[in-house]
Amino acid sequence: MEVIMEKAKVYYCDMHTGRMNLPEKLKFLMKKAGFEEIDFKNKYTAIKVHFGEPGNLAFLRPNYAKAVADYVKELGGKAFVTDCNTLYVGGRKNALDHLDSAYSNGYNPFQTGVHTIIADGLKGTDEEIVPINGEYVKEAKIGQAIMDADIIISLNHFKGHELTGFGGALKNLGMGCGSRAGKMEMHSAGKPVVEQDKCIGCGQCIKICAHNGTSITDHKASIDHDKCVGCGRCIGVCPKDAIVASMDEANDILNYKIAEYTKAVVQDRPCFHISLVIDVSPYCDCHSENDIAIVPDVGMFASFDPVALDMACADAVNKQPAIANSLLDKHGHHHHDHFTDVSPETNWKSCLEHGEKIGIGTREYELIEIK
């Protein structure tokens, strides 16, 4: 007998304003979606956002995070905005640079009304090992402050992505909450390698390695993959960014791992998910630049189900016309799928399919418009 899963409720409103401005409208949407069903009283509440790479202007304005944080505080919660450090070189690789970037983009206490915490610490190595016994991940490595929180709220900028097809709730939670070692595990089937031309032989990687996996010969470091356990700590301490992840995982496997990491973040505690389908750039906010949006702004979406939320947002984007002269318009509509048209090597459905398979949500949803 076939088991029919109940449809998840996804709430939606457009971006038109009248009696309410946009932050007020976001709060109204959250209320209608059941936000107050969560007991926030004296609970540490992590609002997981992407602060935006310096130079990128497509990231969510901090005004939206303030609306969420104010609502949490109104309900008695202890809110903070948070993200984890990046695996790659850029303005968010360590907590100091990351905070500089976040503050510059408005994610500071003066703008949001709450503190900004880099969840995996100074060098991306503050993590909690979370057993999930998944098909691809047995133990997820999640930023410590994320795991210390009592409640998780994902505030997502829904946009395209060159590896996963799009970035939404699952990407924000799965990849975004992974520590440096966690991100490496998702991106890589192997272990880190040393780019010899950048290495100065300083020995920092040797000091941090607990398994004697690194050595220096002729003033250049190398990694013994028979001893290396893939923790990624050497990546964090290298002053010249000479140690990098292999980045050799197939995109579908990357998506499966993101779904399993999302499970590690959301299991066993209250979670709520919000996606703003605005400024839908073709690629991730991790880029230090952004191209023009590929479709017109759609609206705000909210749900207790991250899989249904991503599915609803993807469907909404695919119903939109391409903006003239955008990358979507230039690439054409050969696949009848905006994300695949922009990034043909991706398969965004694989992440949602796996998320449904492992029980973190359903792709079947009821869209409820709030006016």
TrEMBL record:
PROSITE patterns: 4FE4S_FER_1 (PS00198), 4FE4S_FER_2 (PS51379). The keyword 4Fe-4S applies. It holds the Pfam family DUF362. The keyword Iron-sulfur applies. Its cofactor is [4Fe-4S] cluster. Residues 190-218, 219-248 form the 4Fe-4S ferredoxin-type domain. Ferredoxins are iron-sulfur proteins that transfer electrons in a wide variety of metabolic reactions. Keywords: 4Fe-4S, Iron, Iron-sulfur, Metal-binding. It comes from the Bacteria. It comes from Thomasclavelia ramosa DSM 1402. Transmembrane segments: none annotated. InterPro entries: 4Fe4S_Fe-S-bd (IPR017896), 4Fe4S_Fe_S_CS (IPR017900), DUF362 (IPR007160), PSI_iron-sulfur_center (IPR050157). One of its GO terms (molecular function) is 4 iron, 4 sulfur cluster binding. This is 4Fe-4S binding domain protein.
